[in-house]
Amino acid sequence: MDTPVNSFNPYKHLKEQFVSNLTGSSMLEIIALATAVPVLILLRRCFCSNGMRDGNATKISSKKNDDVIVGVWSLRAYMAAMLLDFLLIILPLLLFFTVLSEWTSVAAVLLTLLLISLIAAKRYGASIYLEDGVDSLRSNISSYRVSIMVVTCLCILAVDFRIFPRRYAKTETYGTSLMDLGVGSFVLANSLVSRQARGFPMLKLKNALQSSSPLVVLGIARLLSTAGVDYQVHVGEYGVHWNFFFTLAAVSILSSIINIPPKYSGILGSLIVVGYQVCLINGLNVYLLSNERGTDIISQNKEGIFSIFGYWGMYLVGVQLGSYLFFGNSKQVLRSNNWAKVRVGILSLLFWLLTVILDRKVERVSRRTCNVAYVTFVLAQNLQAFISCYLAILQVLAILMLSDYIPGHKISVLEEAFNRNLLASFLLANVLTGVVNLFIETLFASSALALAVLVVYAFVLFLLVGLANFYGIKSKFW
């Protein structure tokens, strides 16, 4: 169907084609990209390790996260810290994802060497530094979740500009890319710190439905809003009507209906993923990757509906990993950080090995179907171990565990602000992305204009999220 002449989005089809039929990049390049994020966060801590120590400290409890220490600041000092975080973390990331994309691997190596040098210098010259313990591991987990959200928020708008390399955008059928990690990493990050992983009793079905209802509402709202303004939607990603929020809601509901202890959830998750993969290689993948669709609701949304099995299995595996790696038998008690490093190291190597074998011998990685190779790819990428730091294969959790060797406080304004309102930050990023696309023809923007728009977008997003944190505003709907 042609886009109406008076449409809010006259270039809808061109924008959809712009993000279609892509094949991704190499796993090594993704490793380099994923390295840059936590390294920049830790470099910020190294340069300003005492920045958050001024003022009195107040504990603020959150629904899913453990207590967060928030410094009492004046607005002027807080704004100055926000600007510093933006310049040291957000702006470099935007450059790596755009004009410096060809130099990302080199930059990642140089930044890593700089980080190691600064850590060594600070440890040598510091008389007091934080010891390994509960607070450091809690901080690492929170920073890990924030790093995923920051990259996601930056990429969802950058992908609409030509300045963003096509190899970083989501793949059409098979392959690996930076944006392919987004949904899987988000599901895994939530499973690692879920109620099940922390040993809390599961919600009853009625309460689980109530808890998931905001996600359903958000999914419906996104569907209606995109249809209302004729916003571009790549149908091959989830389907005609399906979207990310419906997938999250489905995973949450299924996990509540089938109540299983954390120590067995990984086994069930593995069985679900393997069973789903058997169906894929016996013809289901041909059906899901085909552009042909029937008129029924399942055929219209086949990618979103069937990929639920892969994401659900990944979530259950993540629950057991969270319980096994980070939490003890007691509720909300985190295990030793050193204990976690050893276990993560073994599991990380195992998942990378599985990913290579599955990708070559069973079926290539496919985010669209969320097959078993994609599940192990997300697990390997997100759980790279501390021991790998010495092999220069630094990854999100691994690099963040280096924070134990940085004297001083462990959290920046950016981390604190996004961690307090993770889903709200993502919603705000989606709204801002939609506004930019409706008022700017992103396909025809020059590199200079594209970079300027992305910088302003990122600054406005970070400013609003930061101010919400400063004034104590916290979203309660998920």
Describe this structure in words.
The protein has 478 residues and is mainly α. Helices cover 63% and strands 2% of the residues. It has a two-stranded antiparallel sheet with strand order 1-2. The longest helix is centred in the middle third of the chain and has 28 residues. It is globular. The protein starts with 11 loop residues before the first helix and ends in an 8-residue tail after the last helix. The N terminus is likely disordered. Keywords: Membrane, Transmembrane, Transmembrane helix. InterPro entries: PIGW/GWT1 (IPR009447). Pfam families: GWT1 (PF06423). One of its GO terms (biological process) is protein localization to plasma membrane.
What is the global morphology?
globular
Low-pLDDT segments, ≥5 res: 1-5, 50-71, 127-132, 385-395
So what's the oligomer here?
Answer: single chain
Question: What percentage of residues falls in helices of 4 or more residues?
Answer: 55-70%
Structural class computed from helices and strand pairing: mainly alpha
Report, as a whole number of angstroms, the end-to-end distance.
37 Å
Radius of gyration: 22 Å
Order of strands in the sheet with most strands: 1-2
Q: Helical stretch count? A: 18
Strand content: under 5%
Mean of all residue-level pLDDT scores: 80
The biggest sheet amounts to:
2 strands, antiparallel
Count the E strands: 2
**N-to-C series of helices and strands:** HHEEHHHHHHHHHHHHHHHH
Protein name: GPI-anchored wall transfer protein
GO biological process, one term: GPI anchor biosynthetic process
InterPro entries: PIGW/GWT1
Subcellular location: Membrane
